[in-house]
Amino acid sequence: MKPLLLVKWIDSGLCDPSWVEAKSYEEKSMPICMTVGWLHKKTKDKTILFSSYSLDNNEYKEGNEGTIQIIYNKCIIETKEC
Known about the structure:
The protein is about 0% helix and about 60% strand. It is an all-beta fold and about 80 residues long. It has a five-stranded antiparallel sheet with strand order 4-3-2-1-5, with no helix packed on it. Strand 3 (about 45-55) and strand 4 form a beta hairpin.
């Protein structure tokens, strides 16, 4: 089975669809996020996690993953194995 991780990371994708003054965001901090998921793959640039999977004959089978999340490694503050 893949390792289950707790990842603390900076969300660089802040998006506000409303009409606002751009300068009002100059002092806003970037959100710190916590994600729990099984490690699918870690490359030089990114970490790919999944937070759910379906069983095949009561066992994990690669290809049955769901809720995939990609986090750029440069945004990861800390990773702990659960």
